[in-house]
Amino acid sequence: MDIREDTVNEEKKSLNFIEQKVVNDLAEGKNGGRLQTRFPPEPNGYLHIGHAKAIAMDFGVSERHGGICYLRMDDTNPQKEDTEYVEAICRDIEWLGFKWAKLVYASDYFEDLWNFAVWCIKQGRAYVDEQTSEQIALQKGTPTQPGTNSPFRDRPVEESLRLFEEMNSGNVKPGSMILRAKIDMTSPNMHFRDPIIYRVLNLPHWRTGNRWNAYPMYDFTHGQSDYLEGVTHSICTLEFVPHHELYDLFVTWMKEWRGETDNIEDFRPRQFEFNKLNLNYTLMSKRNLLLLTQEGIVSGWDDPRMPTICGMRRRGYSPESILRFIDSIGYTTFDALNDIKLLEAAARADLNTRAIRVSAVLNPVKVVIENYPEGKTEEIEVQNNPENPADGTHIIKFSRNLWIERDDFKAVPEKGFFRMYPGKETRLKGAYIVDCKGFKANEETGEVEEIRCTYDPNSLAGTEGANRKVKGTIHWLSAAHAIPAEVRNYQCLWTVENPRDAIKDYEQEHGVRGIEAMRPFINSASLEVNTRALVEEYAATLPPLTYLQFQRIGYFNVDPDTSPAHPVFNSTVGLKDSKGK
Known about the structure:
16 helices; alpha/beta; six-stranded mixed beta sheet; 29 strands
């Protein structure tokens, strides 16, 4: 084997199984050697991190292998959809770093789908059914018991054509008539038992106005839209596996309708499925996420506790960290519950390379350096990010009166405590070595109110005297220059590892649904607002969504609510993995 062949084989090994199928199809010249994918969200809510996995696949595979990807809004349910969601979807995809070749809508094909449905009726492959939904459910049988034919299954073609037109008149009550495909009521695949392909809604559509009162179902829209757009690879999640045969059948029928019968298996979209992204302590259901916003459990779709892409952006996750996480868990053909700590680890690794280092004190206690000149202020230059010198520097000010973290001082230290306590020298990060001489405590509560120190003038970091070693380094803020800030600390919104299953079980056990079944599992301590926090002046000037590392504390993000007079920061992830959740 020569070096070139070996390299090609190594590249193949690194492909996920979907990509490998795509590469094989391209090599075999299927669809004329073209590659076209699509991402088809329904605009009835904001995208969440589960969608990010599909986005990374649909857009990523086309980018890496010379293809294109369409963004298609699956807008067949006008009662739930809104332009707000369309705009949010576009914004989130762009933020993740992907570009679509064309923005299209399922509603672009309503006329084609209607005409195709009429052809199906004329071919004896569809009929109008007037049974109730309960009757249809009973008549369809079970996975182990075949269904029975609808009493309307063999009604005359002319009658079904007339009633189908009536379904779109606006005069038919929703639920009183549906159009069903005539396939096989005894099929082991339940989706083949005369599936519903059109239903009456009598609602205007936000794009097509009052043109339609009857709308196509998803199974009668998805594959046909893929075909009409020229999609070569329809990549879906595992819940669509049972729909796969129906997808192929409807595409075959559509090719017949269009007269493409010579090579019916050529130039058709091919559907492949992969596992969804599931995270523990996370609920990813647009219906339930909407309930959380409507009930005021969260502040909106972009609440940093939400798994939405906009919520994660606001909390401080970078697009690179999300894609790094998705790449690390991979694509398989079985569902699994992924540990949220993997996501946090990916964020931590990425933010380490891009976050600006600043000083913040979340629970301050005052330090007075008794031998430091009163009124004196020094400017100390610090790196924005030691991992990347090109990010430059900024200035932090030093003075006689400082703030430090209360946890960095112990009146009586336990063994292994190397920060500040009476009789010990401590390095102030980037500044001087100080020697703790004592402290003043509140007579009633015993709480430390002020710490007294002296400093070594020859120990400034970066100078020759800084070489003197002491155990323990802490961060600080100049009291005269510290800016009051609001810091929002976030934890998981849910107290159970698998909230989806817990909510489902609670619904069945207690006979309640919706938000009432969710409340027992919502973490009341998921948001803690700290108004005692202080930050350095530079941090208060940074724009919203700036990635920060509060030194020795964790990674944070500037919240959009921030202002020069009232800076606001969101906790993203700690510097280290926290064992307790």
